[in-house]
User: Fold Porphobilinogen deaminase from Algimonas porphyrae.
Amino acid sequence: MQPVRQPTRHIGTRGSPLALYQAEWVQRLLRDRDPETDWQLRILKTSGDTIEGELKDFGGKGLFTRELEEALLDGRIDLAVHSMKDVPTVGHERLVIPALLPRADVRDAFISVQHASIDALPEGALVGSASLRRRAQLAARRPDVRFCLLRGNVQTRLRKLEEGVCDATFLAVAGLDRLGASDRITQAVPTDVMLPAPAQGVVGIEIRREDQRMRDMLAGLNDKRAELSITAERAFLRALDGSCRTPIAALAEWNGSTLQFRGEVLSTDGALRFGCADARTIETVGEAYDFGFVHGEVLRSDIGGRITFDI
Ligand SMILES: NCc1[nH]cc(CCC(=O)O)c1CC(=O)O
Assistant:
């Protein structure tokens, strides 16, 4: 008998602990589905991993995903694992995302060594966050709070917080749960206080459009509910934003077969806040997309010139 050569397929990922955890999760799922293939991780650095300052100042989209997409296109990797929150709403024509994994906790976590909740923060507290959305949402509730940058991967940020660099920070509950750091969460912030980023808590797998075999295999991993939810949220974002410089939040939650959608846009200082909410029975990706997109367009015209969108 001829020994069977195991085909190798490469799963591309960033090197942060959270990215690696998510890529290993995908690797396990693929090994279960297709043990004949040798599923290897390939770690790549993205521009988002090397930037020091404010992400918004770098303008470009896809800071955490572009290098992975280039590696897909030139064949260095066969799959790319992304946090969907980091994936631009307009994709490359030669790439597709056929699998979205079941959604984790969508909330943001408030983390502080000394203070029990957002409302317990002392007057003028210093909050470390590079996220425009979290800053604006917190400022809307607590205009007295001051901000500083706190960047780096989840562990780095938690360490800086313990060193006293700031009084509190925010991270996605999903990321902390995946890293086994749920005990660091001081308060899981209710979504009516802090509506999450579009697609927060969802991991997606991107591949080359032409890779039909991979598409067929991944179709079985796709979570339809996660797909419809984030399709609506990302369509809302797409209708509103071109630059990642406007604080935008969206969440589409299931109640039976009804998708309950909420979206909001804030001014950077949190002084202006425009929101919408609606519920509809949704069955297809097309319906989910239209649902989110229309709400983005309506909100955009409600806002008029009061918040600038530099598309
Ligand atoms: N690069 C930032 C990023 N992208 C996705 C997550 C969290 C995990 C998720 O939303 O799926 C994080 C970190 C954070 O916001 O705390």
About this structure: The pocket of PBG is lined by residues 64, 83, 85-86, 171-172, 174-175, 200-202 (CB under 6 Å).
